Amino acid sequence: MTSLGNTHKNMPANPHENSPGQDVLLDVEGLSVDYGTEADPLPAVSEVSLRVRRGDILGIAGESGSGKTTLINALLRLLRPPAQVRSGRATLYPRSGTPLDLLHADAKELREARWEQTAVVFQSAMNALNPVSRLSAQFTDVLRTHRRMPKSEAREHAAHMLELVGIPAARLDSYPHELSGGMRQRATIALSLVCEPDLLVMDEPTTAVDVVMQRQILRQVIRLQRRLGFSVVFITHDLSLLLEIADRIAVMYGGRIVESGPVGALYRDPRHPYTRGLRDSFPPLRGPMRKLNGIPGSPPDLRRLPPGCPFEPRCPYASSECTTAVPELKDHGADRLVACVHADTLPVPTVGGRV
Amino acid sequence: MTPEPHPSSRTPADSEPAPVLEAVDVTVHYPVHHGPRGETVHALENASLRLRPGRTVALVGESGSGKSTFARTLALAQEPTSGSILLHGEPASARGRRARRAYARRVQMVLQDPFGSLNPLHRVRYLLERPLRLHGSVTGREDVEQRLRALLERVRLTPPERFLDAFPHELSGGQRQRVAIARALAVQPEVLLGDELVSMLDVSIRLEILNLLAALRDEEHLAMLYITHDIAGARYFTDEIAVMYAGEIVEYGTAEDVTQTPAHPYTRLLLDSTPDPDRMEFLAGRTNDVEDTAPDAADDDYGEPPDLVRPPSGCRFHPRCPFARPECSTDRPPRVQVADGHWAHCWLLVQPAAEETRAPSATTPEMTL
């Protein structure tokens, strides 16, 4: 990132004021998103800051209504009214080209950045392909538009991408309905990577498939990620899945990140009571069992968030200080951030729902 | 911390109560509507199962494996092509309104989606009152009110007055599913058939529902069928597990036997595919999880479930099975007992290879994902 003298018209006055360093691909600071009117706002995402490093898989875990999808929709500029970014900043530092202010880029800049720098695989990935055109057309369309590639070369590249995800090149001229569900899912992933983006966002990409297929797809994504070097933001409600595939995890609750850190440490020693409860909500597959209780209560109503910590009403460790102010996301050493006043004093946890 | 007994800690040996509901060699073939005449979907083949009071059996399998067809057949919502359903040993029938109603009083089904299964136009009170009035012998306003409260208390929706006059949209997913369960319980059934009861709920509240079902099973001696694709959840809360693949039950045993010493290669694949954070403990770091050894992605491709219009000959798993032998593609594997109350359909169990004591579990390193 040496192009300090960039002339990007939409960049903040001094984009490198807080230049996050070479290894950061995406830098988000203080992002807040509201739904609803100014008079009656619903804070879906509140003051989220996060960084995605090059070549990393960042998992974002959270339950329905935690704000995880709103967060990435804001970053990808896919929000629709009444959703609205209230504050914050998000900068993408692509390998090539100038940094991009994601929240303020104009239509032309977005068009250029999409596919080339950011790509996304949605929850219903299986149905994301155009049912009335052949795979070849959908691949070459992207390549011809973004890369101005001649048709024959585009076809060749498309075949190569399909083979990378284990689909024979002979299927290039198939229609989506001629492929099995798993193949469609993999074709969608291949398509998203066709311009070798720096960032691949996956929003619950495997919730519609069963565990056997899920594992195949995830292994493929990790293999491709190793080979092509892109970063992944992986969104899911399934913490146990993230623990296996992610490098780092950010846990969201009530629109905020409540804890983040490297996956191993987060699993072995979660410092936020919610992370701990979530981790212990998955019955173990092996080893001894004891009764698990999940997390009593329900996720917060974003219209009636408590004045203090959003998790306080369900928290077994809550005290009076939790009810007055929202705890800040504080540095907890070893690359970890925790938003809990009791982070230092939580008892040593048990591992994996075991005693 | 003293470990509380987890919900399926009882052994199967402690008395074998007579089954309430039994499926004997049930086969369901659906006609194919948009295709050559005479073609059928072989959705369920020769499935047998016994549901006993106070016991829970899990039906575990991929989507399309026939789990829901089986549940619908047990609820007599689907007529079996062959085979029979026995209630207390007598062939069950839902021919005619009276028989159907009498059957529904004893066998109730709870569906996956509590957002779709509760009529949004009615309050909880109405939703729960209807089964009471249709099936029960309620004796007036006072009696109804009392039973409604008791029902809500049974599913831990307390205080009842907070929920009685609520509309479904005012409740959370977990609360709605509790209402759906309460509605099923209203008729005092003997059997509860649950189809993916918790899969649409948030992870943190699933356990509460599973614990509630376990309590109902133990306190009210309900016989329960729990359909799921989550084998870890099945291990947590059910007594026995039936693993289904492509319309067939391929393995059956106690929850511990099936999950800890699986006998069928498909069960192995299912277990190995299930996210298991504890596995991390055995890895030096995450990066060891996936070795980039294969240039093409074929090695971890176990294919997909077969087309049930033309199911594979022999063992239906053989096209995906890393241990398939010649006989697997020609003859249907017999049922082989591997332990007391634990059996599987697999040729490997009939003729174990020389060095294998108990195939496939002894020789699956290459299958470990």
From TrEMBL, chain B:
Ranges that cross the membrane: none
Keywords (A to Z) from UniProt: ATP-binding, Nucleotide-binding, Transport
Domain ABC transporter span(s) in chain numbering: 21-271
CDD domains assigned to the protein according to its UniProt record, in alphabetical order: ABC_NikE_OppD_transporters
BP-aspect Gene Ontology terms: peptide transport; transmembrane transport
Keyword flag Transcription: no
Keyword ATP-binding listed: yes
Any one GO MF annotation of this record: ATP hydrolysis activity
Bias (Acidic residues): 290-304
Gene3D superfamilies (alphabetical): P-loop containing nucleotide triphosphate hydrolases (3.40.50.300)
InterPro entries: AAA+_ATPase, ABC_transp_ATP-bind, ABC_transporter-like_ATP-bd, ABC_transporter-like_CS, Oligopep_ABC_C, P-loop_NTPase
Region described as Disordered: 286-306
Record-given protein name: ABC transporter ATP-binding protein
Source species of the chain: Streptomyces spongiae
